[in-house]
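Hello Y.,

Per our agreement to keep a running log of every chain we model this quarter, I'm adding this entry. I've kept the format consistent with earlier entries: sequence first, then predicted structure.
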Amino acid sequence: MGILLNLETSSTNCSVCVAKNGEILAIKELNSANYSHAEKLHLFIEEVLQKASLKMEDLEAVAVSKGPGSYTGLRIGVSAAKGLCYALGIPLISVSTLKSMATQIKIKEDEVLIPVLDARRMEVYSAVFDSLGNEIRETKAEIVDENSFNEFIKASTVHFLGSGAEKIKELFTDEKIIYHCDVVPSAKEMASLSSAKFNASNFEDVAYFEPYYLKDFVLQTKKTKA
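Predicted structure for the entry above:
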């Protein structure tokens, strides 16, 4: 039947949905700068299952947004997904955060989509997709400047979407650039992508799967006087 639980915790948006064959049965999400994932995620899981009149035992797989994104958010989502997969004996599916974001915006055939997530300071996580959702430039962590994405900006209309779009907006005023700064990763767009992976039996190794952090986590500590 393909009943899947989708978890998206890679950004400020804590998002959960349950879907059957790619069709969403129930969804719950909260986009908060306070990163409420640790407190809300399991409550949201219980709520969407209740709304869909399902029990944990009805799930056939759990899909999680694999990143890139918030280190802590990704850890929370993947830990929850792994725990459910172990407990229920069901497969784990991973979905690219940026690919999922790219499905939120429909563009013309000759245009390109560039989802960009804020990675602090002037750095972003980004990838480039064509109108069919094909990745035409791999995912990178990069510091943006006036030369960033020039090959795409010169060639066609470019859509920047996501939290990192505000940084791009400060650098470019080209009329061919369209900004969608309010786009956040959501479990809603994961449903069709995870269903396709489920049907293809494209599963992760639950024991060894790790989120796609893209860069090492750096713990910020306060300096103390000698």
